[in-house]
Amino acid sequence: MPIENIPEIYLDNKEKGPDLFVYDFMMTNDVVKSKVNLSMNMFSFLQVGKKQVHFADTSITVNHEQSLLIKKGNCLWTELLDRDNVYYCKLFFFSEKRLNDFLEKHVDNKPSKTEEIPFFIVKNDRYIISYLNSLNTISSAPTIFLENLLAVKFEEIMLYLLNKYGKRFEGYLYSLISDIKSPFQKIVESNAYSNLKLEEIAFLCNMSLSTFKRYFTAEYNASPGKWLQDKRLQRAKDLLEGGDLKSSDIYLEVGYNNLSNFSIAFKNKFGISPKEIRK
């Protein structure tokens, strides 16, 4: 039984796939126990037929009234036709980076514990049906517009399910994120709140500054200066909102050597001074 690498088999450019990708899958023959390697997390919005998925330590079966969010990795799945000899589902793939960006934007605190469950069942309610129709509507848009529209549609479905299923869905989303970080990421993130300059962090990574900047942008999809400043100022805001600390207590802790520079950067980002946060 060959292994199907998904979504690569659906992509024109198999070396570099998009962060978001939608694929309409239809078949008219039962397929029993395909070996599947998912390289991206995936929504399987089932609309006609049944789907059974076997994971390492559990399995799940859904029908056209349900859909699945499936964690990337290896699994076996069976696709069964309905009475009209048709199977149809819409697959929506998303990268871990997209998921991280969503969680950073919309979820305040990571749960202390997350269950290691490889799937999440979604009920195909009226909103989901309407959502899938909207995906059909935008599918013919030019590529440059489609990429932006998919980014909006990804955030839409995540916000809807977060509102509908609450903490259970939030915990599942965090369970999808790999804890494995590259040595480069470990060095960068362990120094995110230090007062080291970019060239000093680059040195710790055994890179020239220009190489470090290129590598950083490829890894985080942002410039290192902006990424570090945003991290440090958000950390400062969180500390000040605790109510027990002043700017003079924290500016060194969040990577600034000068209180005045910290206060100016803080006001430029948040529109208020650090002192106003504590009022």
Indicate the topology:
Blueprint: E1 3-6, E2 20-27, E3 31-38, E4 41-48, E5 50-54, E6 59-62, E7 66-70, E8 73-80, E9 87-94, H1 96-106, E10 119-123, H2 126-138, H3 143-165, H4 167-175, H5 183-190, H6 198-204, H7 209-220, H8 224-241, H9 247-250, H10 259-270, H11 274-277
Helix pairs in contact: 2-3, 6-7, 8-10
- Class inferred from helices and paired strands: alpha+beta
H/E series? EEEEEEEEEHEHHHHHHHHHH
Give the helix tally.
11
How much of the sequence lies in strands comes to: 15-25%
Q: How many distinct domains?
A: 2
In helices, the fraction of residues equals: 40-55%
Distance N terminus to C terminus?
65 Å
CATH class of the largest domain: Mainly Beta
- Could you tell me the number of beta strands? 10
- Runs in which pLDDT lies below 50 for 5 or more consecutive residues are none
CATH-level-2 architecture of the largest domain: Sandwich
Mean pLDDT: 87
Query: Which of globular, elongated, flat, extended, rod-shaped describes the shape?
Result: elongated
